[in-house]
Amino acid sequence: MKKVIVPIGPYHPLFEEPEYFALYCDGERVVDVEWIAGYNHRGIEKISESKHWDQITFLVERICGICSTSHPIAYCNAVEDLAKVEIPERAKYIRCIIGELERIHSHLLWVGLAGHFLGYNTVFMWAWKYREPILDIMEMITGNRNHYAMMKIGGVRRDIDDAYIPIIRKILEDLKPKLNMLTNAVLDDPVLAARLKGVGVLTDKDIKEFGALGPVARASGLDIDVRRDSPHAAYDLVEWKVITQNEGDVFARAVVRLLECFESMKIIEQCLDNLKGKKGEISIDVRNIPPGEGIGHYEAPRGECFHYVRSDGTGSPLRHKIRAPSFNNIPTFKASCIGETISDVTIILAGVDPCYCCTERAIVAYDVNTQKKILDGSDFIRLSQEKTRKIEKEIGVAPSRWEEKNWERDN
Amino acid sequence: MAIIKIFGIVAGSFFIFGLIGIMSGWFDRKLTARIQWRVGPPWWQNFADFIKLTGKETVIPEGANQFLFLAAPVAGIVATVVTGAILISGSFFYPLKWDLIIIIYLLMIPSISIVIAGASSGNVLASVGAGRELKLFLSYELPFILALLVPVVKFGTTEVAEIVKLQHIYRINLGYLSGFIAFFVGIIAFMGKIGYVPFDVSEAETELAAGTIVEYSGLSLALFKLMKWILLSVGISFFVIYFMGGFSNPVVGILKYILVLILIVLIKNTNPRLRIDQILKFSWGWLTMFGLFAIVLAALGC
């Protein structure tokens, strides 16, 4: 059988980030899919080892622009677990509010993008318009539309003033009917149903084998949610429920995400009730981080975000390990994409709401037989520079002086 | 003298339908933007796009068949312009007895030129797009022809000018139930022809990164864009003439034209892209069924 590789990436309108999927196709049907990461590796775990505990909160915020409060919350949970501190109640509610606002904006962003990937740009624009008030709330209470810088070890950095609470409530009230309309429009559209139902089905067993998380797992009937299963912040102090669907297709994932927005609103409103008219500490001082290990997790919009820190009692962690949810979700493509057409594969790829900047890994080449390391990250950089040099020589372009200097220094 | 006159008609068709097409393309963009709560481009945007594209370098990929690669957009443009010329000359100068048949044939050429463009690019994405365009072509052509056959069955002539005249004597085609059904079948099939959502599978930006025209740049891309615009204006004008009584009253005629354009833009903006097998099923199932039903109704005189 003659197979053709249809490349999705490294730069492709389907993804906002550099990412490469090689679709091995037989006509329109995809018979195999290969995923290559590492185009944008930043070495955050390594940088983290050279920063102070307090600085890392803002470093991990930069891992991802969309779930930019999930990583800080998970990291703070990890350090608080290590230092054995309990944060004040008011800080718990504020953490919940920020986390849930982020979930709404992330899910709306996904709905819009999914529409765009299907060529349904009206849904794209409408969903992003409805997402805008959420970002306005964020700007109002944190000062930033993204990268809120609200978390710190031992609590939160800013209080939510009583004056803001009615405004937040009003924006959320206004958003509810619009969100309802969007949800109904998406769920009742027969053409969307034709495109999404029965596409990219992941069974209960697939989910467990690949260890998929978040809305992807919940859409396949797996009732898992870190917010409920391992309560932190104020999630055990408010009423809400975990949304699950049983179909396991892309449509079910869309339903889970849209309905989760309403649950998030419920959580935010209860948190606001508990904040209003009360005073209290928003953070406690955590001076010394004792030696030991700490684990923190948080249900990011895409699934469980996991942070592990180890301390030797100094000012920065000895080891900081981050596992973002997309790292577990992306390999499910092996189960869901094979046998589908190219058109469906693109929406399946987008259907797990992949976040590649969270997932980036450095590439290391191993010999298959001897398991010996042949090339690592720095070798790849050297190879890439050598190739540039070669091409420059071939086409007769003189390398710039700055580059020349770097080249001499490195070699 | 006749040759000069024919040349004049073709050149006139190019300018008239080119201008109307570019403005229709702008109207489409503007209305789409308003539906999506965006501002949208100014009225001269498509002219600016076209002029800028003509000034850019045309890159021919290494693996491409150079002649076919460059000839494809030209063939498409020539076919659409000649269709427009036949519409003009049929209405004002030389009525042809079989011009409907010629128009049906000529309107197939743009699709074929897109297939050739994709196949000659030497690019995987383009060839996948070309394969899709071919399937798309096979799927919408049957209901399109069935829809155009309805007035032929009703009036017993394949001369477009004659059909316009008869529409004025009796009733416009849209006024009959059969004509009404045929009009919508035809419009939906025509959306496949111009490759608008839900039928934009061959260009599918988020799947194939522009598919068939992925390798085109500069003037060749500009010609493809122009072909799409001319096809849009010629197609809609044809529908107005064929189903809605034509442009005998210019103001009403322009209103009819805008109405059809708005209909197409609305369909485009309220649907996601279909998969190619779904399009085939839909076209050969529902659309063809409705087309046949309309023909039966027309034979019964409804």
Automatic annotation (TrEMBL), chain A:
Residues at which Mg(2+) binds: E45, I322
Assigned keywords, A-Z: Iron, Magnesium, Metal-binding, Nickel, Oxidoreductase
Ranges where the NADH-quinone oxidoreductase subunit D domain occurs: 118-285, 288-361
Pfam families: Complex1_49kDa, NiFeSe_Hases
UniProt-listed InterPro entries: ComplexI_49kDa-like, NADH_Q_OxRdtase_suD, Ni-dep_hyd_lsu, Ni-dep_hyd_lsu_Ni_BS, NiFe-Hase_large
Cofactor: Ni(2+); Fe cation
The keyword Glycoprotein belongs to this UniProt entry's keyword annotation: no
Sites where the protein binds Fe cation: C67, C358
Listed GO MF terms: ferredoxin hydrogenase activity; NAD binding; nickel cation binding; oxidoreductase activity, acting on NAD(P)H; quinone binding
Position of the signal peptide: none
Protein residues bound to Ni(2+): C64, C67, C355
Protein name: Formate hydrogenlyase subunit 5
Organism field: candidate division TA06 bacterium ADurb.Bin131
From TrEMBL, chain B:
Localization of this protein: Membrane
Record EC number: 1.6.5.11
Listed name of the protein: NADH-quinone oxidoreductase subunit 8
GO MF term (any one): oxidoreductase activity
PANTHER family (alphabetical): FORMATE HYDROGENLYASE SUBUNIT 4, FORMATE HYDROGENLYASE SUBUNIT 4-RELATED
Annotated source species: candidate division TA06 bacterium ADurb.Bin131
A Pfam family matched in the record: NADHdh
Keywords linked to the UniProt accession: Membrane, Oxidoreductase, Transmembrane, Transmembrane helix
Enzyme class: oxidoreductase
Topology versus the membrane: Multi-pass membrane protein
Gene Ontology CC annotation, any one: plasma membrane
Top-level taxonomic group: Bacteria
Annotated PROSITE patterns: COMPLEX1_ND1_2
Transmembrane residue ranges: 6-27, 67-94, 100-125, 137-157, 169-190, 226-244, 250-267, 279-300
